[in-house]
Write a structure and sequence with these properties.
By secondary structure, the protein is an alpha+beta fold. The protein is built from six helices and 17 strands. Helix content is 23%, strand content 30%.
């Protein structure tokens, strides 16, 4: 299940209609519909685009909001975690809207993460078909040759998946410590994409940070801080994704 989904009773309670306990009772009594179908199972999860009715009254859709977050290492890119670990929405306690992360960054990866309650926007900027570029900077163990790095653009196979970059650049090397810092540009983001790709080449990732998402950067933010996207930035991201599809 995608991390953009939440338990139905939680969504109902968050809308202000009733308490979570009362919401659970209404679900069990068959008084809640999701997309015009009665739902009686408490474990049901819903997404931001699902139509929810409680006692015949449709929940009002929240106004769309968009945030850029500087995710720290050691935080889960989700709205909840069954192991009790810190999640990204813990950094937004004062936000009333039901926001969720667009895609994810690994637990040990820091950098730009976008959060929203706009499902259409999330799908547009996240889907590989739209090809919005994401730029990562990684510190690796070892110093790869030009020939080895060329494999990154051709694609590296791991677990029946082809992992590749559209651009790569060596920012620095340290022969004494036997490490290198690379800048990698991706147009898709498979699970642990950079880490798996580099491990296949024999250069394990020591540190990883996403520094750019489309034209958005971390400028002005410290780790754990966030800001709202401006209307211009939201429009630019939509236009960027649309242009890539048209091309």
């Amino acid at each position: 299940m995608s991390n953009t989904h939440e338990r139905l009773q939680k969504v109902i309670a968050a809308s202000g209609v009733t308490s979570r306990r009362k919401a659970e009772k209404l679900i069990e009594e068959g008084k809640v519909k999701v997309n015009n179908k009665v739902v009686t199972e408490l474990g049901t999860k819903v997404g931001p685009d699902d139509k929810i009715e409680v006692d015949g009254i449709q929940l009002e859709k929240e106004p769309p909001v968009y945030y850029l977050f500087y995710k720290p290492r050691g935080v889960i890119s989700s709205v909840q975690d069954d192991k009790g670990r810190k999640v990204v929405t813990d950094f937004f306690p004062e936000i009333a809207e039901r926001i969720y992360p667009i895609g994810r960054l690994d637990y040990d990866t820091s950098g730009i993460l976008l959060l929203t309650n706009d499902g259409e926007f999330a799908n547009m900027v996240m889907h590989p078909r739209h090809g919005v570029e994401k730029v990562y900077v990684t510190k690796i163990k070892g110093i790869p040759s030009k020939m080895e790095l060329s494999k990154l653009k051709k694609g590296v196979k791991d677990k029946n998946e082809i992992l590749k970059v559209v651009k790569h650049n060596v920012l620095s090397t340290d022969r004494k410590k036997n490490t290198a810092i690379l800048e990698l540009t991706l147009q898709e983001g498979k699970n642990r994409h950079v880490r798996r790709m580099m491990e296949q080449l024999g250069y394990p990732v020591l540190k990883l940070k996403r520094e750019r998402y489309g034209m958005l950067t971390l400028d002005g933010l410290r780790v754990g801080e966030y800001r709202k996207l401006t209307p211009k930035e939201v429009k630019q991201m939509i236009n960027l994704a649309s242009q890539i599809v048209e091309d």
